[in-house]
Write a structure and sequence with these properties.
Blueprint lengths: L6 H7 L6 E4 L3 E5 L9 E5 L11 H22 L3 E5 L15 E6 L19 H13 L4
Antiparallel strand pairs: 1-2, 2-3, 3-5, 4-5
Bound molecules: guanosine-5'-monophosphate and zinc ion (ZN).
Amino acid sequence: MKHDDCIFCKIVEGTIPSAKVYEDDVVYAFLDLSQVSKGHTLVIPKEHTRDVFDMSSDLAAQVYARIPKIAQAIKTAFDAKGMNILNNNEAIAGQSVFHMHLHLLPKFNEGEGFEAIWKTNEDAYTSEELETIASSIHTHIEK
Ligand code: 5GP
Ligand code: ZN
């Protein structure tokens, strides 16, 4: 169901213009205005979905099934050397538009475009503590 106050629903229906990359019955792909790197594309489900926590596994499967061919096309079009694929969920994790989207961020040169910063806490946990953390998550995975 579309949400009247959602800018990405408006992009899907065409009331807000966008530079369309690809469209089919499930997804709409268009250039992110910010163009963090040339070809930076957003892939969204047409069906309004807030974020990963609001997404069925069936819709996730259908959306992600489209990612390799769109990623390959971006890579081929501009001879990208690599690509980050990113999805922010909730404001604390950097989400600013609350319609689920995957960022496809082609990478051309080190020090340009999207830079992933991983703060490692590798030394902070024993293997037993890692087992406890994994078990806590596993308990909540729906069968
Ligand atoms: P988020 O921060 O939610 O992961 O990413 C939202 C993205 O949507 C941002 O990178 C921003 O540049 C992009 N964006 C926001 N409004 C518009 C718009 O009206 N058109 C397009 N093409 N991109 C938008
Ligand atoms: Zn929406």
